[in-house]
Amino acid sequence: MYVCLCNQITDHEIRRAVEDGCSSMRQLRNELGVATQCGRCGTMAREILNEHRQSV
Ligand code: FES
Q1: Average of per-residue pLDDT across 10-32
Q2: Measured between alpha carbons, how far is 39 from 21 in angstroms, rounded to an integer?
Q3: What is the pLDDT of residues 29-52, one digit of tens each?
Q4: Mutate-to-test residue for ligand 1 from 40, 47, 49, highest number of ligand atoms within 8 A of CB
Q5: Could you say which of 27, 36, 39, 44 has the lowest number of CB atoms within 10 Å?
Q6: Looking at the predicted complex, does its ipTM rise above 0.90?
Q7: Is ligand 1 within 6 A of the CB of residue 6?
Q8: Domains in the chain and their CATH numbers?
Q9: At what angle do helices 42-55 and 25-32 cross, to 10 degrees?
Q10: How far is the CA of 54 from the centre of ligand 1 (A)?
Q11: Is the CB of 35 under 6 A from ligand 1?
Q12: Average pLDDT in the chain
């Protein structure tokens, strides 16, 4: 599912980035470009980041 429509980033890509070492929104933003435009995806991206970080 798309989390960030502006940049067409999926939840799968966010999880993969966490597995590859991203541990903060800043890193996700730099790595994938999440929440760099309208910002509406920020809350959901953060939730996925936090959930997945605990399970990695
Ligand atoms: Fe992610 Fe707009 S939906 S920046």
Answers
A1: 97
A2: 22
A3: 999 999 999 999 999 999 999 999
A4: 40
A5: 39
A6: yes
A7: yes
A8: 2-55 (1.10.10.1100)
A9: 110
A10: 24
A11: yes
A12: 96
